[in-house]
Design goal:
Rossmann fold, binds NADP nicotinamide-adenine-dinucleotide phosphate, NAD(P)-binding protein
């Protein structure tokens, strides 16, 4: 059978951080795709979303508008659906998968874009619950859907996210509360580079008749610095030494227990991530797939952080 590429693509969650970045990278390769579309879910309206959808439309992206993800007709004639939903929307992936399969789609990029969830205890962590749900659902549907394939894009963490207040780094006070110790490492890649690699992965030919070939995991790696190295980089970038407090991971477990008792989902997610982080769960294992897309020059952590700190829009996310 002739090798398959995925040239007709619908991005769900296109108005989000990752979804929008992936759309921008797809648009740079427009000539290599037959159809590029963004899902505009009007059930969750906002002026910010409208502005992004208008910008994507003006750049030549087709817009698929609906107030539901559940209509199979919306997915007709797409080779692949990229589901770049946010962590609080990820639970909807099974219903998107079912509707899209009914509409004829046979390849999915679930909302991964993070750690390899097969590493260590990641799969049992609350933080990854709905990513595991999507993987399990795809595996279940593969049993009754001829030719169903998927691509798991794993990256570790986005560099820009790694130093956000939500993850314990206070860039205003130049302090940090980190779980684990200063030698703890994580894999970091920029949103732009990960999105460029993701866009190219759709065009990588595979044998759709062979499950080994159509069930893909991509591991896109930037650099894997320790916390000690990250704070040395932050010192060079900002000119300031951060005062870092390292916490035992058992504290994150205790926090998670407390969150569960209080039914505080946000705190539960946050403490779960601290457990992952403190046990090097976001360190991406080999083999890496960057070399398959050698025209993407992945930027180093320092270069990305210099750009992030210089960007007015990013400053708000950094808590500055
Ligand atoms: N590894 C890392 O460092 C890292 C960092 C950031 C993100 N990620 C991963 O990347 C993926 C995308 O994250 P993101 O930050 O791009 O997501 P986001 O911006 O928070 O949301 C993306 C989209 O999800 C859709 N959505 C549907 N239901 C939702 C709900 N109930 N609440 C919130 N959003 C909902 C929204 O689009 P509609 O309104 O059109 O439905 C939204 O635009 C996630 O799986 C996340 O874990 C990883």
């Amino acid at each position: 059978m002739a090798p398959t590429t995925l040239t007709s693509v619908l991005v769900v969650g296109a108005t989000g951080n990752v979804g929008y970045a992936v759309c921008l990278e797809l648009l740079k390769l427009t000539h290599r795709f037959t159809r590029l579309a963004a899902f505009n879910n009007i059930a969750r309206p906002s002026a910010e979303k409208d502005a992004i959808i208008s910008a994507l439309s003006a750049s030549g992206m087709e817009i698929v508008t609906s107030d539901t993800y559940e209509n199979p007709n919306l997915y007709k004639d797409f080779d692949a659906v990229i589901m770049a939903l946010g962590n609080f929307g990820n639970y909807q992936q099974p219903l998107i998968i079912d509707a899209a399969i009914e509409g004829g789609v046979r390849h999915f990029y679930p909302s991964e874009f993070g750690a390899d969830i097969t590493v260590g205890e990641n799969a049992t962590q609350r933080y990854y619950r709905d990513k595991v749900l999507a993987r399990n659902h795809l595996e279940k549907r593969a049993k009754d859907t001829e030719g169903l394939g998927w691509s798991y894009v794993t990256i570790g963490r986005f560099t820009e996210w790694g130093i956000r207040p939500y993850f314990g780094v206070n860039n205003k006070e130049r302090t940090a509360d980190i779980y684990g110790n200063e030698d703890g490492r994580q894999s970091l890649i920029s949103v732009e580079d990960a999105s460029a690699l993701t866009a190219r992965s759709l065009l990588m030919p595979f044998d759709a008749a062979d499950p080994e070939n159509r069930h893909r995991t991509f591991r896109f790696r930037g650099e894997s610095p320790s916390w000690k190295e990250i704070f040395a980089i932050l010192k060079r970038v900002t000119g300031y030494e951060y005062k870092v407090t390292y916490h035992d991971v058992s504290e994150a477990w205790a926090l998670q227990k407390e969150a569960k008792e209080k039914n505080d989902e946000k705190l539960e997610m946050n403490s779960s991530h601290r457990i992952v982080q403190g046990t090097e769960g976001t360190l991406l294992p080999e083999p890496y797939d960057n070399d398959k897309f050698s025209d993407v020059n992945v930027k180093g952590v320092e270069e990305v952080l210099r750009a992030t700190f210089a960007d007015e829009k990013q400053k708000a996310f950094l808590g500055l």
